[in-house]
Amino acid sequence: MKIYQQQIRLHERRRGFHLITADILQAFPQINEIKTGVCQVFIQHTSASLSINENADPTVRHDFEMFFNKAVPENDPDYLHDDEGSDDMPAHLKAALLDTSLMIPIRNGRLALGMWQGIYLCEHRNYGGARNLMLTAWGE
């Protein structure tokens, strides 16, 4: 069994849903050495998250942002945690609704994503800064 682990730092992105599949593959070429296995992608933050979804039509990413902004609005007077701005507590709630960790099969040295699937960084802060991911892959 082979086990690889790599931490990567993604550059700062504006609030929204951003495809990062290519960033992961470029930073973690060890995936190519595994015939059958699993890759875990974990984000080390509480105000951003990860998702797998549509990778072709950019309107999907726009619609995701619109939906989450409606579902979890800013400036709700009931929020107690607002020391870091009006987008802080909504960012934590959005991250809790999505994933902080993804498990993706590896087949023949490639992520076994579907034809129209990509990995998203879901940035929920207006100025979230650079984001850290921990990538772990294991298999034969």
UniProtKB/TrEMBL annotation:
Gene3D superfamilies: YjbQ-like. Belongs to the UPF0047 family. Pfam families: YjbQ. InterPro entries: UPF0047_YjbQ-like, YjbQ-like_sf. It comes from Pedobacter hartonius. It comes from the Bacteria. This is Secondary thiamine-phosphate synthase enzyme.
